[in-house]
Amino acid sequence: MFNWKAFFEKREPVFIIAEVGSVHDGSFGNALKLIEVAAECKADAVKFQTHIAAAETLRDAPMPPYFKGEPRYEYFERTGFTPDQWQQLKAHSEQNGVKFLSSPFSEAAVELLESVGVDRYKVGSGETTNLPMLERIARTGKPVLLSSGMSSWDELDAAVNTIRRHHDHITVLQCTSEYPCPYEEVGLNIMAEMRARYGLPVGLSDHTLTSYASLAAVVLGASVIEKHLTFSRRMYGSDARHSLEPAEFADLVAGIRAVETMLRCAVDKDQMAGQMREMKQIFEKSVVTLVDIPAGTVITRDMIGIKKPGTGIPARRFEELIGKRAARNIGRDAVLQEEDLHA
Where residue 5 falls among pLDDT bands split at 50, 70, 90? Predict the structure, then answer.
């Protein structure tokens, strides 16, 4: 049986990735500013997409159903950056205290990112079956975040095995390649299946429109959360409509950190009850007298009731007091104490 307590006590903090993708729309200034926003939101990493149009797509390749704004080839060409700009983006990320990541979509993009000096790779869902590119990435020896959004188990097995021929530094991300992804298709159950199948850390690349799935994934043991970030969902492009705005992303990060604290800090129920002693006296109830009761009187049901405060014999013992004798004169509206009754 999986030891959840040990797992949450020992695991590293969840690695939170702000997925910028192509939200910058080719503006280098926007890309720099999005790095700063990700840092302000306290993300651990900011992730772009490195597209080299001629290396990854034919000119007549179809556009995705959720973005028909312009042909893909032209879009990738227009929104791409130069090698020097990629270097500046990495440096700006480091200056702002966030890790720089970018998903390659061709072996040429891998070579570019190697020249930039990335320290890990994120493989997008559409590249999971691109085994030659995975082979090239694996040969770098760098950790890999492997997204699984479009893959069958056989395809995902092949991807994991390709990387494992070189190293085992893999985190497999559950992902559903729907934009946006409905809650019914998030597939949180698959994270547990992937953990059992591969014995590797797992996470979630979340394409829903809220933070709920990400928070649930953390509870279920995700070590990585990836979520799209934008200035505004009104921005042009393929990703903005499905992204979180800055305040929402900051709230997601705060929520994840709060959930981590809750999971890491086990509470002893009896110890907590002891700590609540003052509150118990205020909010709980005691057995009290409803009438004057002379010494020696046998207590009957109509003589006692249950009222605040909880400073006397607790209400849960009401029945056992019936039939006992008063050890002394007890006035009306008195909170009964042990010494008021004969044992």
Answer: low
pLDDT of 2 over the 70 cut? no
Strand pairing report for 170-175 and 202-206: parallel
pTM given for the model: 0.88
- Among 140, 151, 259, CA closest to 205: 151
Please give the C-alpha separations between residue 33 and each of 45, 49, 96, 217, in angstroms, as whole numbers.
14, 16, 11, 29
- Looking at per-residue confidence, does 339 or 70 come out higher? 339
Q: What residue ranges define each of the domains in the chain, with the CATH number in brackets?
A: 4-264 (3.20.20.70), 271-340 (3.90.1210.10)
- Pairwise CA distance, residues 233 & 58, whole Å: 29
At 153, list the tokens: 């188990």
d(CA 44, CA 14): 9
Cα(242)–Cα(137) distance, integer angstroms: 28
Output the pLDDT for position 240. Answer: 77
3 state DSSP class of 315 = helix
Looking only at Cα atoms, what is the longest distance across the chain? 101
Q: Any residues with CB less than 8 A from the CB of 59 and at least 6 apart, and which?
A: 71, 73
157 Cβ contact list (under 8 Å, min separation 6): none
